Amino acid sequence: MRIKAFVAFTALAIAGTAMHALAAEARFYDPSNPASTTGVTTDHDLYRTIGCPGRGLLDAPCTIPDSDGDGVTDDRDRCPGTVAGAKVDAVGCELDADGDGVVDRLDACPATAAGRKVDAAGCEPDADRDGVIDRLDACPGTPAGTQVDITGCEPDADGDGVANRLDTCPNTPAGRKVDAAGCEMDADKDGIVDGLDQCPDTPAGRAVDAQGCEPDADKDGVVDALDQCADTPAGRKIDAAGCEMDGDKDGVVDGLDQCPDTPAGRAVDARGCEPDADKDGVVDALDQCADTPAGRKVDAAGCEVDSDKDGVVDGLDQCPDTPAGRVVDAQGCELDADKDGVVDALDQCAGTPAGRKVDAAGCEMDGDKDGIVDALDQCPDTPAGDKVDNVGCTLLNTIVLRGVNFDNDSAVLRDEASAILDDAVAIFKRYPALKVEVAGHTDSTGSAAHNQQLSARRAQAVMEYFTAKGVAAEQLKSSGYGESQPVADNASAEGRAENRRVELRVLN
Fold first, then answer.
1. Where does the pLDDT of residue 246 fall: very low under 50, low under 70, confident under 90, or very high at 90 and above?
2. Separation CA 441–CA 307 (nearest Å)
3. Taking Cα atoms as reference points, which of 97, 32, 42, 86 lies closest to residue 65?
4. Which of 208, 420, 458, 480 is the most interior residue, by most CB within 10 Å?
């Protein structure tokens, strides 16, 4: 055991001597290092592989090296080959402030936005070298040395699409079409640029006006170079040669022809219309009645029309719808001898007095059908079936002489009865054959016998009034009926007054 310890100590001493010698060169012996074929490991590799063995045992302490001198020891340095003097971060790698992959030491564009593509100098590409990066360059193929604007395009002062450098017409108006030299186009070569040329297809060699159009002196739509009728009046229809049209070939141009469809070979007047001497609308060439009076309606042959075929032409016919076969007068109207508005052919009452109203058969009207025509009927609304007098009024069987009343227990006529009785007198005189019973009545006041006598006196008083006025006595008869035939209630003063009455009863 002692022998082994001595040997080990001896070996260690020997080794320590050797390692001391190597330490001065930063070389350390480590026979166990598999990475070293020589048994010698140096510098950073030494630390990476075996750490710092023998710390405190060697003549000089083991230190962690900084192989590239960037201030970051090899144990922490992820970028061990840093160029001397380069500024590095905590892990020994050069700084890249904008993160574009180009270290700050080499980055000519240190503030590049994140995610942008850059070149070796850390700047965004500018392929055509015009000072506008490709990302913003609207004209990426600009020739070298060419001045450009902020979009990377050459200046174009007149906005015609041709750069100032190439534009030989630098003041072209906006919107005009130009050629490669920046000058306005003149497609038809008439001297008027297309932007002003209102006639862009003018044939070569033709004279044009300021609008690029060929002159048309008479404004007929045919240019002077082709116009064979150079003075055509304004607004006239013309043919391809600029001459006025004559569609019907009658010698009158359409612009003056008021009858543009005249059949071929017909004579026409200055208006291009066939003559019509009688102005009936049928030209003389077709008119079989050449002297028709002005304004008359004619047929296709120019003769006056007789629509109802009564022998009187429509121009004179005051009754143009006369039925066929009827006799008419000179005015074309059927005869009406009694002038009642019903022609004789239909008149069943041919002798109607003038001015009377008649029905469709020419007979006088009798509205209430009482047998008395309306013209004579003084009672035109007589109820159906009533017997009437000769003036159409109903003949009543009983007529109450209303207003012919008497005082209580009196047979003396009141003064107001006269007007009513006089009307009755007039009827008697109008109808002398009329026979009437004068019937007297009373109310129920008093005895029946007394009332009977009183009613007879009252009837007699009325009859005497009639005879005094000239009514024949043979037309009259008086009777008293007392209180036996009341027409109202005797319980009231009004009813009793109604019952004190005189009636006329027709007997024939």
1. confident
2. 76
3. 42
4. 458
Pick from 405, 396, 482, 480: nearest CA to 438:
480
Collapsing DSSP to helix, strand or coil, 75 comes out as coil
The answer for residues whose C-beta is within 8 angstroms of residue 22's C-beta and 6 or more apart is 28, 29, 40
pLDDT value for 455: 93
Q: State pTM to two decimals.
A: 0.28
The first and second tokens of residue 145, run together, are 């040395």
Identify the pLDDT of residue 52. Answer: 56
**With 50 as the cut, is the pLDDT of residue 141 above it?**
yes
Q: With b meaning 16 or more CB within 10 Å and e meaning fewer, what string describes 472-493? A: eeebbebebbbbeebeeeeeee
Calculate the alpha carbon distances from 410 to 231, 413, 443, 448 in Å.
122, 8, 12, 15
- Other CB atoms within 10 A of residue 235 CB: 8
Confidence category of residue 27, pLDDT binned at 50, 70, 90: very low
Query: Closest Cα partner for 148 from 162, 132, 161?
Result: 132
Sign of CA dihedral 41, 47, 48, 49: positive
Domain residue spans of the chain: 2-50, 335-364, 398-506
Return the CATH fold of 398-506: 60s Ribosomal Protein L30; Chain: A; (3.30.1330)
